[in-house]
Structures are given as structure tokens and as C-alpha cells.
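Morning run. Coffee first, then this:
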Amino acid sequence: MRFEPAGMTDDPEVRFATSLVDYIFRRLAIEYLPVDKRNEMGIYTVEERTAAADAGHPHPGPAPTPVTDATGQTVLPVERSLPVDDLYGDAPMCYQCGVKMRRAGSCHACESCGTTSGCS
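And here it is:
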């Protein structure tokens, strides 16, 4: 749901909310849901976001699933992605949800909520 009041909050765990209902349910999820359920919904604590940033990942998320190779050994899949700077560069933070926006042509677009930086 998206309606007013929306925007920044004083809560360090939920920095942006699209509505009062969004804020309340994100706060309840952080307090009462297990980590794996919150990861599925894309709701992370400050510690989880900080740990992901320190590890060089653009977004926190579930750990990679182990895979069994041809010899029967269990290995983790290799992450083959561009460095964070190549994806985001000097992109601003989304004014709707607070996620760092990604360059989309001559403007920026938010991967989380779909907001653009105003270009046409």
C-alpha cells in the first residue's frame, strides 16, 4: 500500500515507509519474523545491511545454496556479477523507499519500487 503519510522515519531499522501500514508491518516483521522469512520479503535489519555492504554485496540476502559438482563434492556457486560501482556509480538514493537507484539510460531507476529520477 502506498499513501500519505509516507517518507523518512526516525526508526534506524525502517528508514523509509510508503505508508503508515507499510511502516507498522515492516517493524513487526523485524521484531517477530525469523531471518529467513524476512529475507524472502526483502526486509533487513541494520546489522544485515551493514554485513552485506562490508562483504561487498549490493543487497543483503539469503546465503548461496550449495551445489554438488560432478565429483560429488559440495561447493558454493561462484557469484559472477559486476562490481557495485559499475552497477550504481554515482546514483542517488530513491526518494520513495531509500534504496540506491541504478542507472537507466540517462536517468536513474529504483530496483525496489520502480521510481525513476524524473527523466522521460
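The helical segments are 20-32, 35-41, 46-54, 84-88. Good start to the day.
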